[in-house]
Amino acid sequence: MQLHHKTPCNECPWRKASPAGWLGGVTPEFYADAVQMNEAPACHLRDSGPDDDDTAFCVGALGTMANQCILPDRSPGAPEARREIGRRDDCFGHVALFYKHHAGQDYVHPFARRGGGIA
C-alpha cells in the first residue's frame, strides 16, 4: 500500500462527520480491530488488493491512529504514512469513539471479546 492522498475521502468512515453506520458493507469491528491491533487498513475507495500499487492507505484511519498515539507496525510503509498524516481534528480521537459512532455501543478490545482478557 501507498499514501496516495493526504486528507480523508468525503466518504471515509473515520471522519467524525461520516454518517453513523455507513461502513461500506463491513462491520465496525473490521475497521476498529485492525486499527486497535496496529494495522493500517486500505482506503475503501482505493483497495485493489495488498500487492497492487493502486491500493492506498486509509488516511482517516491513519489520522485516528495518530490521534490515539498508535503507530502501525503490520503494514510496510504505514509508520511513515501515519507520521506524514499526523493528528487530524476531523478524524475520531480514539477507536472507541469510532466504534460508538458506527455501532451505537461501547467498543470491546478483541482480546477481551475472546474471553482471555488482557494479561
Describe the structure in your own words.
The chain has 119 residues and is mainly α. It contains 5 helices and no strands. The model has no long low-confidence stretch (mean pLDDT 89).
Q: What is the percent of helical residues?
A: 25-40%
Mean pLDDT: 89
As a whole number of angstroms, the C-alpha radius of gyration is 13 Å
Q: Report the biggest beta sheet as strand number plus sense, adding barrel if it closes.
A: none
- Secondary-structure-derived class: mainly alpha
N-C termini distance: 32 Å
Tally of extended strands? 0
Q: From N to C, what is the helix and strand string? A: HHHHH
| Outline type | globular
Given as residue ranges, the uncertain stretches (5+ residues, pLDDT < 50) are none
Strand content: under 5%
Instruction: List the total number of helices.
Output: 5
Q: Topology of this protein?
A:
Blueprint: H1 28-36, H2 59-67, H3 78-85, H4 95-103, H5 110-113
Helix pairs in contact: 1-4, 2-3
Keywords:
5 helices; 0% strand; mainly alpha; 119 residues
What is the compact description of this entry?
The protein is mainly α and 119 residues long. The chain has helices at residues 28-36, 59-67, 78-85, 95-103, 110-113. It is built from 5 helices and no strands.
